[in-house]
Design brief:
The chain is of the alpha/beta class and about 425 residues long. Helix 3 runs parallel beside helix 5 and helix 7 packs across helix 11. The longest helix is centred in the C-terminal third of the chain and has 23 residues. The N and C termini lie close together (about 10 Å). The C terminus is likely disordered.
Length: about 425
């Protein structure tokens, strides 16, 4: 039976809301993914309702994110930001809130459930069984993968999460991987059905993130026109490894010192390391750790810490930078890398997770094996301190980013929903509430 696109989609994002500012708390690339795909679905005539946990008594029950996209705040636990380790205790309350909301409608209100992250998948699994509609699940990160590449001092993901992920993988009608590598990990590490696992790369907003005037961007950020600017954008936590950029910057200055005090002084006068983001996850335990590291490395004078920026304001950060560093220990994809490249800025990234897809090594940026300061300093210097090579990579960065768009991602998701619904009807003999 051919698949047809849904009329109404239920999206579950228990632990973070698309209304939150990326770069703060648990808000990051997943928030952008949910918002961007939901808006584009609505533009295609598909109504989207996003359920997330309420974190303040001031939040209204429902907020319109965009025409056709509603964000519903479900009361589940105290009105405060709970850590991910505390959220499993609120799964029952959150799931009950989602089921109650659907119960107010006629049967068949939603055509598909799309859950994001394993906690939402647990709620989605029960909703799927109650509503008799297919469950599509995006993991975004996987505990077994994270535990295999932990940053120093970062606690491993608990066994309870691994079990929860295994349950969701077994129950979902479709699993969405960001890259072929992630899809393979779902199959090999979690026993996912290969036939029900699809790869759909995330996108980038090619209307917002575009190449522009570097000097105007630097003026907006109060940066000297002739500065050598290395930037990190993201949540401040060990997994994202902003410390690698600080250590690499210190190594750059140490290497310049070999050529004499004057060479080091000349580089130090121009070097600026931008750290844009806020503490998150395990980074909340030591929110000033990066400041202390900069002091210990003797580079406080070249490091500037900026709070999380709106996506519009991030454009200036990306355009102002000579290089954007993405040194994460694990990334399911790496939206920051795509956004920076769309602005024409080369990226130096760790060769982990989805970053080898997000960055075209040698064409749009460089991939670094490992996280050693010497290797990172060499890669950053080869781009930031070589204008001709940087310009070549800049052109390649913009071209590479054009291969990715949220429109393509949305089209692929809608096709996946339709296929999952057609198979669901064939398997269970139920009439899903799809148009057509």
């Amino acid at each position: 039976m051919p698949g047809v696109e849904p009329r109404r989609v239920c999206v579950l994002s228990l632990h973070t809301s698309p209304l939150e500012q990326p770069g703060t708390g648990d808000a990051g690339g997943m928030n952008v993914y949910i918002e961007q795909t939901a808006v584009r679905m609505a533009q295609r005539g598909v109504a989207v309702e996003i359920f997330t946990r309420a974190t303040s008594s001031d939040q209204p029950p429902t907020v319109e994110l965009a025409p056709g996209v509603q964000v519903r705040h479900v009361v589940a636990g105290p009105f405060e930001g709970l850590g991910k380790a505390e959220l499993p205790s609120q799964l029952c309350a959150f799931t009950a809130g989602v089921l109650r909301a659907e119960a107010r409608y006629e049967p068949g209100h939603y055509d598909v459930v799309h859950s994001h992250y394993w906690l939402s998948g647990q709620a989605g699994w029960l909703a799927r069984d109650r509503w008799r509609v297919p469950l599509v699940h995006s993991a975004h990160t996987l505990a077994k993968v994270k535990n295999a590449a932990l940053a120093d001092g970062d606690p491993p993901e608990p066994r309870s999460r691994i079990i929860g992920e295994e349950q969701v993988v077994a129950e979902a009608d479709r699993l969405v991987g960001n890259t072929d590598a992630e899809s393979a990990q779902l199959v090999e590490l979690y026993g996912a059905d290969r036939e029900r696992t699809v790869t759909i790369p995330p996108g980038v907003d090619l209307r917002r993130y575009t190449p522009g005037d570097r000097y105007a961007a630097r003026a907006a950020l109060n940066l000297p026109a002739n500065a050598v600017v290395l930037a990190f954008v993201g949540r401040i936590q060990p997994l994202k490894a902003p410390d690698v950029l600080l250590r690499a910057a210190a190594e750059l200055l140490a290497q310049a010192r070999v050529d004499g005090p004057r060479a080091e002084w000349a580089l130090r006068q121009r070097l600026i390391v931008l750290i844009v983001g806020g503490p998150s996850g395990s980074g909340l335990a030591e929110p000033t750790a990066l400041h202390r590291l900069a002091a210990a490395l003797g580079i406080t004078d070249v490091v500037r810490f900026l709070p999380p920026r709106s996506r519009d304001d991030l454009v200036d950060v990306y355009r102002a930078a000579d290089v954007v560093a993405v040194p994460s220990h694990n990334e399911s994809f790496g939206l920051v890398a795509l956004e920076a490249q769309a602005c024409g800025t080369p990226v130096v990234a760790a060769a982990v997770g989805g970053l080898p897809v997000a960055v075209a090594d040698g064409r749009s940026g460089l991939l670094v094996p490992g996280h050693g300061a010497v290797d990172w300093a060499g890669a950053l210097a080869s781009v930031a301190l070589r204008p001709g090579y940087r310009e070549k990579l800049s052109t390649g960065a913009a071209q590479h980013a054009e291969r990715f768009s949220w429109d393509r991602t949305t089209d692929a998701l809608l096709a996946t929903y339709a296929d999952a619904a057609a198979e669901f009807r064939a398997r269970f003999g139920v009439q899903a509430g799809l148009a057509g």
